[in-house]
Amino acid sequence: MKVSKISKEQKKEEIVKTACKLFAKNGYYNTTIPDIAEALGMSVGNLYNYFKSKEELAKYIMQYSSKLLGEEIRNINEMDLPTKEKIFLLVKRFIEIAEENPELIDYFLRVFLSNREVFSKGCEGFLCVQEVVTEIMLFLEEGVKKGDLRNQDLFTAFVTIMGPLGGLVFLKGENILMDNPLKYSEELAENIWRALKA
Amino acid sequence: MKTLLWIQGLTCNGNTHSLLNAENPSFYDIFSKIKLLFHPAISSDEDLIKIIKDITQNKISLTFLVVEGSITKNKSFCRVGDFSIAEIIDQLKDKAEFIIAVGNCASFGNIPALYKENTNVVGLQYIFTEKKGLLPPNFKTKSGYPVINISGCPIHPAWFMQTILALYYEKPLILDAFNRPKEIYMYLPHDGCIRNEYFEWKEESEEFGHKEGCLFYNLGCKGPLTHAPCNKILWNRTSSKTRAGMPCLGCTEFNFPLRENYFETKKNIGIPEEVPLGVSKRAYITISGVAKSLRNERVKKKLEETD
C-alpha cells in the first residue's frame, strides 16, 4: 500500500514537470490533456487517474512549486545567521532553484501570472502560494524584530524581495542576460539588503 | 470557625471593591461561614495590631491571610502601625493555613513595582516573571500551598469566592505555573469572546465600541494571550471588555504593566509580534492568509445588515 502511494507521488511529480514545460512553452489553452499524456507516454485515461481536469493539474503545479520553494526558504529562515547573510543566501538559492527547475519558474511567469482566470477558484489570493508567502513574511518579520530591517508595510517589503528575483529569471527566460544568472546573485542581494535594511 | 484576615500593601482598593460586589456567595454569605478578623475598609472597632499580636501568640488561629496590594519594606510608602507591610507579613506568614494574594499587585508587584522612587516593591512571591518576591521561592504555608495568586487588575469577585470556597471545603486546588488556580486561569478571554467569528476570518475592528470586528490585530487586544475567564464568568453577570468593544489589556498576567501602548498591537512588517497562545507564527500567518483569501462576506457587514 505504502509503496504504491510513493510511486503515485513520483508519477505525479513526473506529470507536473512535463505538463509544466508544455504549458509554459505552448500556453495553457493550447495545451491539452492528450498532449500531456502523449509527452509522458501514458494514456489519457490513466492521466485522468491522477488529475481530474486540466484546471486541477494547473493548480496542483502551483501548489507543488510553492511547497518546493517554501521548504528552501524555511531552511534559510531556520538558520542562525544575520539577516544580511540570509538575504544573500535567499537570492542565491532562488536563482539556483530557477536554474534547476526552469520549467517551474517559466510556468509561474507565463501561465500563473498570465491566465489568472484559471486560478481564480481555489487558487486565489494566498491559497496556492501560501508556503512561499508565509516563509517570506516570517523572514521579514524576524529581520524587523531583530532591528536589521526597516519596519514598513508588508507588501512593499515583499515585492522588494520577490520583484527583483522574478525580474532576473524573466530576463534569463528572454535570453537577454549576458552572464549566467548566478553571477548577478551577490549584487542583486546587495541591492535588496540596501533597500530593506534599517 | 475558620478565620480570614485581609491586609493591604500598596493598593488602589480595586480588589476590595470587587469583594463587595461578590454574589453566590455574597460578601455577607461568605463571612457568615468564615470569621472576618479584619478588613481595612470595613472593620472600624477592631484593633488590627492587637489581632496580629494575638495571631502571633497563637491566641487566634488564622486560616486565610489575604493580601491586597504590593509589598514594600519601606515604611514611608506603606505602614501598618509601626510596621512596614513586609514586617506584618513576616510575622504572619507561618501562622496562616493559606496565604492568598488578591490582584496583580500582591501577586506580581504590578504598577507600584514600577515606582522609580522606591525600587523595593514586590509581590508576595513574585516580582513580575521572577520568583523573587518578598517570600522565598520555595515558601509554603502550613497547608503545603505556596502563596495562591488570584491575579487581575482588579480580580473578579467570583474568582476569589470560588478559591475561598474550594479551600474552605478542603478541595484540592491545582495551580498553574504562576501559582494561580488552574480552574479559573486555564481559560483565555478569547474563550467565549463573542467576536471569535471576526477573529477566525481576520476581520479587524478599527474603532473601540463597535459591535463588529476583532480587536486583536489593530487595537492591542490580549484576549488570545491572557489567562482569565472574563468571557466565561462575565462582569456583573452582564458583559466583558471585549464584548463591549474594548480590548483585553492582559491584566491577569505577570507582565501586565510592562507593555507600552495598550491600544496598539505591536507589529513587525504588518505581522503581530505576539501571536495567540498555542500556534507558531508560521501557522498564524498561514491561517490568516487563507482566512482572508476565502473571504467571508458576512463578517464584512454591519451586524444589522447581515441575514
Secondary structure layout:
The complex is a heterodimer of chains A (198) and B (307).
Chain A: H1 2-26, H2 33-40, H3 44-50, H4 54-77, H5 83-100, H6 102-112, H7 130-145, H8 154-173, H9 185-196
Helix pairs in contact in A: 1-2, 1-4, 1-6, 4-5, 4-6, 4-7, 5-6, 5-9, 8-9
Chain B: E1 3-8, H1 14-20, H2 27-33, E2 35-38, H3 48-56, E3 62-68, E4 71-72, E5 79-80, E6 83-84, H4 85-92, E7 96-102, H5 103-108, E8 121-122, E9 148-150, H6 157-168, H7 182-185, H8 196-200, H9 241-244, E10 267-268, E11 271-272, H10 281-294
Parallel strand pairs in B: 1-2, 1-3, 3-7, 7-9
Antiparallel strand pairs in B: 4-8, 5-6, 10-11
Give descriptors for this structure:
heterodimer, A: 198 residues, Arc Repressor Mutant, subunit A, Tetracycline Repressor, domain 2, B: 307 residues, alpha/beta, Rossmann fold, Cytochrome-c3 Hydrogenase, Chain A, domain 2, 5-stranded parallel beta sheet, 25% helix
Write up what this structure looks like:
Chain B: Residues 12-167 form the NADH:ubiquinone oxidoreductase-like 20kDa subunit domain. With 198 residues, chain A is mainly α. Chain A has two domains: 1-52, Homeodomain-like (Arc Repressor Mutant, subunit A, Orthogonal Bundle); 54-196, Tetracycline Repressor, domain 2, CATH 1.10.357. Chain A has nine helices and no strands. Chain A has helices at residues 2-26, 33-40, 44-50, 54-77, 83-100, 102-112, 130-145, 154-173, 185-196. In chain A, helix 1 (2-26) packs across helix 4, helix 4 runs antiparallel to helix 5 (83-100) and helix 8 (154-173) packs antiparallel against helix 9 (185-196). The radius of gyration of chain A is 18 Å and the shape is elongated. The N and C termini of chain A lie far apart (53 Å). Chain B has two domains: 3-186, NADH:ubiquinone oxidoreductase-like, 20kDa subunit (Rossmann fold, 3-Layer(aba) Sandwich), CATH 3.40.50.700; 187-299, Cytochrome-c3 Hydrogenase, Chain A, domain 2. Chain B has ten helices and eleven strands. In chain B, strands 2-1-3-7-9 form a five-stranded parallel sheet, with helices on both faces. A two-stranded antiparallel sheet of chain B has the order 4-8. In chain B, strands 5-6 form a two-stranded antiparallel sheet.
